[in-house]
Amino acid sequence: MLSATCHCGAVQIEIAHPPDAVTNCNCSICRRLGALWAFYPVEAVRIGGDPAATRAYQWGERTRRFVRCRHCGCVTHCEPAASQPTRKLEVNVRMFDPALLGPVRVRPFDGAGAWKYLDEHAAEASC
Amino acid sequence: MLSARCHCGAVEVRAPRPPETLTNCNCSICRRYGALWAYYPDTDVTLMAAPDATDEYVWGDRSQKFIRCKHCGCVMQWRKLMLGPDTRTGVNARNFEPSAIDGARIRLLDGAQSWNYLDQALSASSPPVA
Fold it and tell me: What is the number of other CB atoms lying within 10 angstroms of the CB of residue B1?
């Protein structure tokens, strides 16, 4: 079990295992948040803290909620809106002590344009 | 003049020019914010926002505040609480248009420990150039 918190400690996150890879997305919101996302089933992540200690940002089609600590502003995770069937949740691994995570592959995702991983594209191009 | 805008557009930070270098700091708050800081004299930077459109986070020795959009949460700028004539500010370059920071060099700052730029440490350990 790996634990992390936002900067002030009001929001806690626990994941069962470190991610194999994290996603660095260049879309309009992800690039601004500077987040590195690790994907987990909702059930595999424990979010602790008073729900009133968080705020969420939704935009566009309002399918995702970007959740941050109300006090320190750290974006801890991104979760599906209640209306969504998907059960995946993204944890922002920036909250974790880098030494705790160990080496993690960072995958650039072109959310601003092609909506695909740029390292996949590179692999295809090299074939 | 260059503008950094939060995602929802409620907060804008105006800086005088594109940054030549950006600082990627690994201290406890900067690594969580995932920020890339562009430094300017505080007097050269203007925050454009309605008075109630921002939230601020102050901690530790309470020497500076981190300003973010209250609605979308984008971290926009840090400012010193005590302003002097030479005070500088940090603008989060993640909110600039990406093309504005294309050529900027990213410098790693060891804010978690030594408070040195790690590229400085590297160049200091290599032989001097004749």
Answer: 7
∠ CA A29-B20-B64, nearest 5°, is 65
Asked if A94 reaches chain B (Cβ–Cβ under 8 Å), the answer is yes
What is the three-class DSSP state of B97? Answer: coil
Pairwise CB contact (< 8 Å): A74 & B55: no
pTM here is: 0.92
Q: Which site among A12, A29, A33 would you substitute to test the B interface, given the most B Cβ atoms closer than 10 Å to its Cβ?
A: A33
Question: Is the pLDDT score of A70 beyond 50?
Answer: yes
How many Å apart are CA B106 and CA A87, to the nearest integer? 36
DSSP code string of B50-73: -TTSEEEEE-TT--EEEEEETTT-
Q: How far is CA A44 from the centre of its chain?
A: 14
| Token pair listed for A14 | 């626990």
